[in-house]
């Protein structure tokens, strides 16, 4: 096989592979792309450069390279059934691209694997963002969005650096000048606020949780 | 709450000053607090949800230890209430990434970062020295990186590194000062540091073939992600594959492949490869395939300006092709990613090969202004 291939100027094994290839593609029963090519093409032309720029600024030049990540994100959105459901396609693409990038950060991968292993949740349910999960979890997303708007500027910055940029405490400290202890405290306070609002929005009758994260409990400034 | 230590910095200091005070007086991290007695007392009164949140942020802090992770597992499995609380925190953590706030923060953050593209100067000096500047920038970035993240207990002077990059469309041959030869595939990049004691290469992207001159006194190492390949005199290739995995293929001699530990307490795993043996590792350095035998004529055909595939997934073929075409080729249907391709062509034949793909396989090729798109037929 290889010797033949080396000598061939341009060579395909049509008849052999065609059958095999058809088996593969028919076996893959994933939803077929039904987007109008023009819609995807318009999205691509309108947002490609800016998405790449944002990824580059937030995560550096890779690997994975921002262009590869953006391509994967556009590819995923192109396979969605109902593009019309998305109010802000660019934000959607950025969310998907962000998640793809985070899957390449070593310490996050290890943490995700570890948590998935011990909570017996599938890994992709632990920390995955895909078009389907975004649409399915609208109520929770709205609650967390509301929660993030109630955070202080500092809390939001630390939360996003840890969760969205995938930075360790040391990296956040190095970038901002805030102490590791302060970062730890602010991040826990921010999460407490989000959990409280999530609980209120999704289970308003359960007061037990709310009482544990009363405002006095989530104070972020050191008490004298 | 987790924080049992308090300082008295509420005295009108601005944020940065306050941070410094805290840095000096209040170095309590989750990890450290977990080990002191004050925390033990505090944790008795804290709710499962508080503890769940503390564990979650601790696990994502980037500063965990095996001991504390074991403690987490014990805590998690001690009651269903703990498991439910942790799942709740985890869901909130996950959902943050789906909010518009996250996107807004990314956009703001990107706007605050300094521009990475230098302003054009009206002289030709900049253009002439662009390569030198690139190498210097890479070296400076590496020095800064080492300075910030090096946590060893003794002072180590970072060695200057030189960056080599190949353009899209062609291989690049480099001979190092020790006599070793390196061939970079198109659109690939390495950093090189050669001293009296070691020869250290970092593969930043793409693929590289190394023909290493024998030198028993200096190990020749190639690092990519969390994988390190160590030899003293041999020939082998290290290549980035889809999903950030790596492929190491040995042509001559013996090669040690190491799964680099991320923390001092972890042990390094090492596998030895012989000629014509191949191994795949993932982004974390884990060995994700058994050692397999490969055809060197096929694997190293790219050194002779040819690409040969024998039942290779389409996504791997396209990843290679994109090192040699100006207009990137994109697969828009995941269903054809794994399509097995058998083909042989030179770099100059990539365009007709793509047209041939469309007629030989159940796929459609569409040429757009900035890219070529492959979709399921």
Describe this structure in words.
Chain B: Residues 1-25 are annotated as: Disordered. Chain B: Residues 7-18 have a biased composition (Low complexity). Chain B: Residues 166-255 form the FecR protein domain. The complex is a heterodimer of chains A (224) and B (377). By secondary structure, chain A is an all-alpha fold. Chain A folds into two domains: 33-136; 138-224, Arc Repressor Mutant, subunit A. Helices cover 69% and strands 1% of the residues of chain A. Chain A is built from 13 helices and one strand, in the order αβαααααααααααα. Chain A has helices at 2-7, 14-27, 37-59, 66-78, 89-102, 106-119, 123-127, 131-136, 138-149, 153-163, 169-176, 180-202, 207-212; one strand spanning 10-12. In chain A, α4 crosses α5, α9 (138-149) packs across α12 (180-202) and α10 (153-163) crosses α12. The N and C termini of chain A lie far apart (78 Å). The model of chain A is unreliable at 13-34, 123-127 and 207-224 (pLDDT under 50). Chain B is α+β, with helices and mostly antiparallel strands. Chain B has four domains: 15-110, no CATH class; 128-158; 164-299, Jelly Rolls; 305-376, Phage tail protein beta-alpha-beta fold, CATH 3.55.50. Chain B is 33% helix and 27% strand. Chain B is built from twelve helices and 19 strands. In chain B, the strands form four sheets. A seven-stranded mixed β-sheet of chain B has the order 1-4-5-7-8-11-12. A seven-stranded antiparallel β-sheet of chain B has the order 2-3-6-9-10-13-14, with no helix packed on it. The relative contact order of chain B is 0.06. Residues 1-44, 116-133 and 138-157 of chain B have low confidence and may be disordered. Chains A and B meet through α1, β1, α2, α3 and α4 of A and α1, α4, α5, α6 and α7 of B.
